[in-house]
Design brief:
about 280 residues; 9 helices
């Protein structure tokens, strides 16, 4: 009796959770990388298969359900609170300036954050003469996407490139720099590298962080200095928290801000434009 109940609950969860998550995260999931809808479909198919697999042990069905559902729920993205339009492909979104392109920026979103949450800030950066390509990360995890050399090659009109990213996206951006010596700039938003870039020649690097960030703390940023070139600019946005680097609402575990989101984002945009001006 108990085994049958466990089996039914596990199967029901696998079948019910994917459509609920899809409904709740419709915008981020349908506009982002196709890997996420595929994952939901896999979990749904697994639930149906387990329903038909009547001879399987109840404990095994329960374990499989947990292994499938737990990461799927965890990967549900923080949705953008403001949606700005952009040119879209399956794996990127492009924000273009109105005039000539002076430089390009490939931008990696933070982990589990809707890529569209960065459009309001990056649209203002693009307006200053920069082509901005926002990467749609597989399952919202930047390190799963590999380097972005092909993305840059697809825009041959861009004279010089920088890469950047927020949080885990900044780690991915730093790995882009390590993999491709032609990248001239690195712009870290509330992030730091895990690889040593201190001897990378010809790299203009900026670290833009929040004073009140609860995830990438001021101490984390200070400790990253040894991994970045000696001339790296470190700009701290007073009163800013981790979630201020995008428009996706508050983030559990973040610090407590002491200034408004709009004021902090003005500074973030100003510093980012200055960083890209340094690259040109």
């Amino acid at each position: 009796m108990i085994r049958a109940w466990v089996r039914r609950c596990a199967v029901a969860a696998c079948i019910a959770v994917p459509p609920v998550l899809l409904l709740l995260g419709w915008g981020p999931l349908t506009s982002g990388h196709p890997a996420h809808p595929v994952l939901l479909a896999v979990v749904e198919a697994a639930g149906i298969s387990m329903a038909l697999w009547r001879r399987g042990p109840a404990w095994l069905v329960a374990v499989l359900a947990v292994l499938l559902i737990a990461p799927t729920v965890y990967l549900q993205p923080f949705g953008a609170t403001t949606v700005v339009t952009a040119e879209n492909t399956a794996t990127t979104a492009v924000l273009r300036p109105d005039g000539p392109v002076r430089a390009g920026l490939v931008f990696h979103p933070g982990a589990r954050v809707d890529h569209r949450a960065y459009f309001p800030l990056l649209r203002r950066v693009a307006a200053e003469g920069f082509l901005v390509v926002v990467v749609k990360e597989p399952l919202g995890i930047a390190l799963l996407g590999g380097d972005t050399a092909e993305v840059r090659r697809s825009h041959p009109d861009v004279p010089v490139w920088a890469v950047g990213g927020h949080s885990l996206g900044g780690v991915a951006a730093a790995r882009d720099v390590l993999a491709d010596g032609s990248v001239r700039g690195l712009v870290l938003w509330a992030s730091y590298p895990v690889d040593d870039l201190s001897t990378r020649d010809g790299l203009t690097a900026w670290s833009i962080s929040g004073e009140r960030d609860g995830f990438t703390t001021p101490q984390d940023v200070a400790e990253s200095r040894k991994l970045l070139p000696a001339g790296t600019r470190f700009e701290v946005v007073s009163g800013a928290v981790h979630a201020y680097f995008g428009d996706y609402g508050d983030q559990p575990g973040d610090g407590v801000p002491t200034r408004s989101r709009a004021e902090a984002q003005d500074r973030i945009v100003e510093h980012t434009v200055a960083a890209l001006n340094d690259v040109t």
